[in-house]
Amino acid sequence: MGLVVCKLNELTEDTPFEVPDPGDPEGMESLIVIKLGARIVAYRNICPHAGRPLNWAPGKFLYAHGQLVCAAHGASFRPEDGYCLGGPCRGASLAAVNVVVRGDQLYLAE
């Protein structure tokens, strides 16, 4: 069935949600999950510019003008596809994670 990422009721529209990466056996990495209408996207919480997490504190992200912003160097990403619109890694993208909804939970796609 795959690994559980989170329950759907934990997600709020247009709000980045941090969860431990269930695919990381060491438990050191996390994912960013964003509900965009009927669609849910997930990315590895790693900025392509410097390889650090995008959040400024655990579970706390900068999300302004419909863009996810890296707290370290200000790179801004489109939530729909993770594409960097501005900042030091312009033109790069966040690493997408394939997820699937089953019942009331979100799973890593197999």
What does this structure look like?
The protein is mainly beta and 110 residues long. It has one domain (4-108): Rieske [2Fe-2S] iron-sulphur domain (Rieske Iron-sulfur Protein, 3-layer Sandwich). Helices cover 0% and strands 36% of the residues. The chain is built from no helices and 10 strands. It has strands at 4-7, 17-20, 30-36, 39-44, 62-64, 67-69, 76-77, 84-86, 99-102, 105-108. Strands 5-6-7-8 form a 4-stranded antiparallel β-sheet, with no helix packed on it. Strand 7 (76-77) and strand 8 (84-86) form a beta hairpin. The model has no long low-confidence stretch (mean pLDDT 94).
Roughly how many Å apart are the termini?
A: 8 Å
Q: Note poorly predicted spans.
A: none
SSE order in H/E notation? EEEEEEEEEE
Number of domains: 1
Q: Work out the strand percent.
A: 35-45%
Strand order of the largest sheet: 5-6-7-8
How many strand elements?
10
Examine the secondary-structure arrangement and name the CATH architecture: 3-layer Sandwich
Specify the number of helices: 0
Shape: globular
Largest sheet: 4 strands, antiparallel
SS content category: mainly beta
Q: Please state the CA-atom Rg, rounded to the nearest Å.
A: 13 Å
CATH class: Mainly Beta
CATH topology: Rieske Iron-sulfur Protein
Helicity, as a percent range: under 10%
CATH homologous superfamily, by name? Rieske [2Fe-2S] iron-sulphur domain
On the 0 to 100 scale, the average pLDDT is: 94
